Amino acid sequence: MAITSSTQTAFDVPQLVSQLMAVERRPIDQLQTRVGSYEAKISSWGTLSSLVSTFQSATTTLNGSLEKLAATSSDTGAFTASTASNAVPGSYSVSVSQLAQTQSLVAAGQASSSAAIGDGSATTLTFEFGTISGGTLTDGLYSGASFAANGSGPASITIDSSNNTLEGIRDAINAANLGVTATLVNDGSATPYRLALTSASTGETQSMRISTSGGDGSIGGLLAYDPAGAQNLSQTQAAQNAALKVNGIAITSATNTVSDAIQGVTLSLKSTTAASTLAVARDTAAITAAATSFVDAYNAMASQMKSRFAYGSKTTAAGALAGDSTLRVMQEQLRNIFNTPATGGTLTSLAQVGISIQKDGSLALDSGKLNNAVATNHGDVVNLFNSPTGFATRFNTWAKETINPGGLIDTRTANLKTNVSNFNTEIDRLENRMAALERKYVKEYTNLNLLLSSMNTTSTYLTQQLSGSSTK
């Protein structure tokens, strides 16, 4: 009798299970694809939110710039100027006869800056500030002058054995913040070290009177200074107010920053000048810059809205927000703003001030047309942008309703995030199921391999036994 044998080949369990699991995981793969798509949408909305915010800022800046004035000096070496919101256009004649300055006093020279002055017993050094009147100044010293304190109160320090050197006195004055700056000057003479004192503030009421009490008199002999009495310091620069004329009107100022001479204008005096001109006019440079930023911000935002909304074609990929209903609403709202005229003035459309819509939907700026409108019809330009029906007002309202909490983008993003969270929860559930299913497949096919191995062993045994019987 002929005997045949058949051996069953074992399964490649890892490969077989991998193939089976690839089929089983298709629902998870589909969910993960959707998660990726939704996360791309969330990212796109984040980008658009940032662009809308930039557009809103540009709109606000343009709003404020329309009222901005610029002050131009004909001699910037003599003075410059800046404007506030209440400035008024006009031209002014300005002359400056003197600048405000601090008072400077200097002590007699000493051979050493670190040698002790006096016996070190405590001396009170007191500073007062006020106005010097009358008198004659000769070689830095007054005669026949009077001193009237300005009411701010005296300030004192103590000089003793711990600081009774020029360096110590200098440091003590500066550390006390008395309204005086102390420095040491070396004049190169046989007694070169001189203590120089300068009032911290300008103006004629900042003249100093320095008195001493206590000690052996050495500190007083060096530093006491009374314009109407003993003057042991020499004046190298007198405290004085600025003096100027605006349109022939005499004005004085304790500082070189004059903010109350011309309404809404601050003058910064730098040097004297016999006759200069200050022109206050609309700041066309700032307005043009703000309008340019407005146009650029809108174009950047509109371009991204358009590309992300676009459907795909054979040659181009679809945008991340292709056909999104919320984005469609935003685009329609913008079109409605552009298409709805402003009211309350002779200007009703942006094109009338040089901001026009191009064929591709972008904006273009004609700065010459804008500047001409500002120069000839400023009130209506302001109305066109800033009135309740003005374009800047409506764009700003649109931006707030779009990006603020609870707005269009926030609501749409929240919905997308909820969907992503739900998908991830389902993916986690399916992943747990996949793990259990994979263990089941591994176990089943491993057991099947064991069964096949046992069957092959039995088959081989029987074949051998039958083969032996057939030869007898």
List keywords for this structure.
alpha+beta, five-stranded antiparallel β-sheet, elongated, 472 residues, f41 fragment of flagellin, N-terminal domain
Could you characterize the architecture of this molecule?
The protein has 472 residues and is α+β, with helices and mostly antiparallel strands. It has ten helices and 18 strands. Helix content is 43%, strand content 24%. The N and C termini lie close together (12 Å). A five-stranded antiparallel sheet has the order 1-16-3-12-13, with no helix packed on it. Strands 8-9-4-11 form a four-stranded antiparallel sheet, with helices on one face. Strands 5, 6, 7 and 10 form a four-stranded antiparallel sheet that branches. Helix 2 packs antiparallel against helix 9 and helix 7 packs across helix 8. It folds into three domains: 243 residues, f41 fragment of flagellin, N-terminal domain; 72 residues, no CATH class; 134 residues, Alpha-Beta Plaits (2-Layer Sandwich), CATH 3.30.70. Strand 12 and strand 13 form a beta hairpin.
